[in-house]
Amino acid sequence: MKKILALILVLALSAMCLIACGGAKDNNKDDNGDATKDTYTVGICQLVPHPALDAATQGFIDALKAELGDKVTFLNENANNDPAVCTTIVTNFVNKKVDLIMANATPALTAAVNGTTTIPVLGTSITEYGVALGIEDFGGTVGGNVSGTSDLAPLDQQAAMITDLFPEAKTVAMLYCSSEANSAYQVKVVKEALEAKGITVLDKSFTDSNDVNAVAANAAAEADVIYIPTDNTAAECAPAINGVIGDTPVIAGEQGICAGCGVATLSIEYYDLGFATGKMAAQILTGAADISTMPVQYAAQFTKMYNAEKCAQLNIDTAALEAAGYVAIAAE
C-alpha cells in the first residue's frame, strides 16, 4: 500500500513539474510564443492641436486599425500645449495599465519616458531623439521601452531654400519657441549654414504664445526673411504670426506652419509619419518586434511646397516655383 501511495505521489509531483516548466499555456501566447491577446488599449498623448500633429495622430490610428481591426481601444488625449498636462495624461495611462503609449511631440515623449520604464512608448513628430531625450552621440536606437519616428527634414536643404528663393536677402530671423529643444537644434543647424554664406542671422525666440506676436513683428521689422522650424507653439500660433509679419516672407520647417504664415517649405507628410508609427505599434503589440532593438524611423520622402495665397500676396511667381519642383499646399 505504501508503495502504491508513493508511486501516486511521484506521478503527481511529475505532473506539477511539467506544468511549472512550461506545460501550462500562457493565456496571451500561442504554442509558438506569439501574442494572441484579444484586445489592446493604446494611450495617445498629443501635445497640442494643429494640422501636422493631428495628421500624425490620425495616421497612427488608421495604421493600427488596418493591422489589428477592432482589437484596439484608443485613449486619445490632448494637452493643449501644456507639458504639465502631458505628465498628467501619461500618469493616467500608466494607472490604467495601457498596452502602449504613443507620444506625439517632444514634451509628450519626455513625459512618457519619465512616466514609465515598462510600457512601450513610441514617439512621433520628434525632430531629434538625442536632443529630446538628452542622449549624447545618439546612434539611432533609444533602447529600453522607447522608439518611434522622426520628422527631421534635411535642414541644409531648408537653408538653401532661403537663399535660392530670396538671393538678395542679407538678414534672416530665426523665429522659434525657446522652450522647445528640437526647435533650438534646427535653428542652430540652419544658422550655421546661412552664416557660412555670409548672411546675418538674428535670434528671435519667444517663450510662449503670450509673446509670439511681439517677437514675430520685431523679426519682420528687422529681417529680410524669417525662418520658422518645426515648432509646436509657432504652429499653433501661425495665423497670429501671419497677422503681424506683413510682407516679410517666411520659410517654414513644415507644411502646417507654411499653410498658416509661410511662403514655402520642405516638408514631410505627417499622416504618413503617423502611419509608420502605427505599423511599429502593431509589431510591438503582437510580439513581432522588440521595441528595445527598434531603431527610430525617418521619413522616406520630402516635398517642396508653397502657399499659393501667401505667394500671391507677395507677388511671387508660382509658375517658376512649380517649374523648380514645388507643389501647392492643398487648401484645408
Helicity range of the residues?
40-55%
Find the structural class using helix and strand composition. Answer: alpha/beta
Task: Tell me the radius of gyration.
Answer: 25 Å
Whole-number average pLDDT? 90
Quaternary organisation: single chain
Number of domains: 2
Estimated share of beta-strand residues: 15-25%
Counting DSSP E segments of at least 2 residues, the number of strands comes to 13
Our measurement of the CA-to-CA distance between the termini, rounded to an integer number of angstroms, reads: 86 Å
Please give the CATH class of the largest domain.
Answer: Alpha Beta
- The neighbouring-strand order within the major sheet is 7-6-8-9-10-12-13
What's the total helix number?
14
Which CATH architecture of the largest domain? Answer: 3-Layer(aba) Sandwich
Topology order in helix (H) and strand (E) letters: HEHEHEHEHEHEHEHEHHEHEHEEHHE
Largest beta-sheet details: 7 strands, mixed
The dominant shape is: elongated
Description:
The structure is a single chain. This protein has 332 residues and is α/β, with parallel strands linked by helices. It has two domains: 40-151 and 270-298, Response regulator (Rossmann fold); 155-267 and 302-328, Response regulator (Rossmann fold, 3-Layer(aba) Sandwich), CATH 3.40.50. Helix content is 46%, strand content 19%. The protein has 14 helices and 13 strands. The chain has helices at residues 2-23, 51-68, 83-95, 106-115, 129-133, 155-165, 181-195, 212-222, 232-236, 238-244, 255-261, 270-285, 308-313, 318-323, and strands spanning 40-46, 72-78, 100-104, 121-126, 146-150, 171-177, 200-206, 225-228, 250-252, 264-267, 297-298, 303-306, 327-328. The strands form two sheets. It has a seven-stranded mixed beta sheet, with helices on both faces. It has a six-stranded parallel beta sheet with strand order 2-1-3-4-5-11, sandwiched between helices. Strand 4, helix 5 (129-133) and strand 5 form a beta-alpha-beta unit. Helix 2 (51-68) runs parallel beside helix 12, helix 6 (155-165) packs across helix 7 (181-195) and helix 8 (212-222) packs across helix 10. It starts with a helix and ends with a strand. Mean pLDDT is 90; it is low at 1-35.
